[in-house]
Amino acid sequence: MDINKIRKDTRGLEDGKIFLNNAGSSLMPDLVTDAMIDYLKSEEYSGGYHIANVNADILEEFYDETAKLINAKADNIAFATSATEAYAKALSSIVFKEGDVIITTADDYISNQITFISLHKKLGVKVMRMKNLPDCELDLEDLEHLIKIYHPKLLAVTHIPTNSGLIQNVEAVGKICKKHDILYLVDACQSVGQMVVDVEKIGCDFLTATGRKFLRGPRGTGFLYVSDRILEQEYAPLLLDMRGANWTEYDDYKLFTTAKRFEHWEISYASMLGLKHAIRYANEVGMEPVEKYNRNLSQKLRNNLKDSGFDVWDLGNRLSSIVTFSGPDGDLENIQKVLKENNVYFSVAYKNSALIDFTNKNINGIVRLSPHYFNTIEEIERVSEILERSLK
Ligand SMILES: Cc1ncc(COP(=O)(O)O)c(C=O)c1O
């Protein structure tokens, strides 16, 4: 990876900030915003329908680039306006009835947990969470045990939780789902763009992602992967529109064959184009070197923070580029002040966003730093020094 070139490709880095909020909303490469602005300008002059027709082939490349990123086929990809929209569409395609069981994890994303609770309240679906082992890894024996007793309809796992450095063993869960023929939904919102994500290896039926985080795309974008077996079984969102089906009879329709049936007809094509460019950029840099580079940055940062006396809260055997920590007596305020004064971009999360995890860790919140491949080891050292000095 040519870090100098990558940094030059990113105007957002020109003012000397240290940008470490890639798990929140990253900096787009220049070509992403340039392509979007050009596209909007052409809409301004000719209207959106004409411009979408003229650019049909270029827009279609979004599906090829996304498929390449996660080792799928273009027909398995749907554009979405966010990871949450993709997740809701996937869930809505499953016909839940009272007593059906969803098994998830204690570390799944806040919005997923709220959605499951809503399914419980509205439809009487039972929500269970598999146990964690003492080292924070998923307890797969417990999972097999729960499956044998409850015969779940769906297993849902967040690959990388938003507020902890943990990387969940989604491949092992995938094998168990296959063995027991259970639907499998993976939230890869924080892993796509950060590391290699391969839907064949994971063995999932649905996988959701957002554009604006480690993928470095625009806000208001994301995607959904839908496996062949799900498409063949005619799964489709509950509230379909004309993007999903052909209206063939007064009282009937015929579903379209590809994952596009999970889209809505109206979307921002400028945003889709921006996401295509961001994904193409990620494909060109290559996810293997990105994963390796990010692991080095985050390990260095964690070690420095621990050595300086901060409490680092990332537990698990494989850790991601999400580094979470707090200061003496759980301090978050002083850390935020110092980072802001030094033009370091970060985010903070409080207890309700990771209710189970933070309760278990007995903390009220964390500061999150999330380095990415345009960051340098010098930046990591500088931030570590700034934080160490703040303790003296
Ligand atoms: C793990 C995880 N899943 C899902 C989401 C939701 O993504 P979006 O805001 O694009 O819907 C987030 C956002 O922070 C996340 O971290």
From TrEMBL:
The keyword Iron does not apply. It holds the Pfam family Aminotran_5. GO terms for molecular function: transaminase activity. Coiled coil: none annotated. InterPro entries: Aminotrans_V_dom, Aminotrans_V_PyrdxlP_BS, PyrdxlP-dep_Trfase, PyrdxlP-dep_Trfase_major, PyrdxlP-dep_Trfase_small. Residues 18-383 form the Aminotransferase class V domain. Belongs to the class-V pyridoxal-phosphate-dependent aminotransferase family. This is Aminotransferase class V-fold PLP-dependent enzyme. It comes from Chryseobacterium endophyticum.
